[in-house]
Write a structure and sequence with these properties.
By secondary structure, the protein is α/β, with parallel strands linked by helices. About 35% of the residues lie in helices and about 15% in strands. Helix 2 (about 30-40) packs across helix 3. This is NADPH-dependent curcumin reductase.
Length: about 140
């Protein structure tokens, strides 16, 4: 499992604490080349929440039948409508040719009616050490 994070400290945390096999610092040059090296067999699942240059690096590495859950695209949240390159043709061609399944989700669609179960399960999992919790310092 390969992670992508912003900064060496976050990458170390992903590998040393969370158990990733590798983590690429998205701020370093040539992310596409480094990602291709880290994923020589391609990518079967990519959790999309960034967009931009990271997604550009991932797209050609997606394997046939890859799955891409989309929960955000933070690199574009403040874009104007015409800002940046037009990625639609490349995304559409990749989805078609590689039979990629992309599905967006909004956590609030599932959150309200299941909050009690979520709170119960998460509390138990954290107490049992099944989940690693990291609270950012202010």
């Amino acid at each position: 499992m390969v992670g992508i994070a912003g900064g060496a400290d976050k990458c170390r945390y992903a590998v040393d604490t969370l158990g990733f096999d590798a983590c690429l610092d998205r701020r370093r040059p040539d992310p596409a080349k480094r990602l291709a090296h880290a994923c020589p067999d391609g990518i079967d699942v990519y959790f999309e929440n960034v967009g931009g240059e990271v997604f550009d690096a991932v797209l050609p590495l997606l394997n046939i039948g890859a799955r891409v859950p989309v929960c955000g695209f933070i690199s574009h949240y403040s874009d104007e409508a015409a800002a940046g390159p037009d990625r639609l043709p490349k995304v559409t061609a990749t989805v078609l040719q590689k039979r990629v399944r992309m599905q967006g989700f909004i956590i609030l669609d599932h959150y309200a009616s299941r909050y009690d179960a979520f709170q119960r399960d998460m509390t138990a999992w954290v107490a049992a050490g099944k989940l690693v919790v990291r609270v950012a310092e202010a």
